[in-house]
Design a protein that fits this description.
The chain has one domain. Helices cover 79% and strands 0% of the residues. Helix 1 runs antiparallel to helix 2. The chain is mostly helical. The model has no long low-confidence stretch (mean pLDDT 82).
Length: 107
């Protein structure tokens, strides 16, 4: 039981590290935005504003953040699965022990 809890704690710590990595990826995206040349002011001939497309650096930053986030979610899911399995085994052991005691009391 304690082994499962230790594994769950380790997975939770690793997910926390992954969260820090996601924050670093967002910081890299912000730096990529700042490195882009600023557009010069042009007179507007139309009434609506055009949104510029995303740069390559932004797409790379987004993809890194998504990959790191998905790895964190995967580790968290594994930790939850291990914890649920440990709880199930503990409940099974308690039920079997109770049945064993009841069986030996009737003899």
């Amino acid at each position: 039981m304690s082994d499962a809890l230790e594994k769950a704690e380790a997975a939770a710590k690793e997910a926390a590290v992954d969260t820090a990595a996601v924050q670093l990826a967002f910081a890299a995206m912000e730096l990529a935005k700042l490195a882009q040349p600023q557009p010069t002011a042009q007179p507007h001939t139309c009434q609506h504003q055009h949104r510029p497309g995303r740069s390559t650096g932004e797409w790379i930053g987004i993809s890194c953040a998504v990959c790191i986030g998905s790895i964190g979610i995967a580790f968290a899911s594994i930790a939850i699965a291990i914890a649920i399995g440990g709880i199930s085994v503990a409940i099974l052991a308690l039920v079997l022990r109770s049945m064993w005691r009841d069986f030996h009391k009737t003899r």
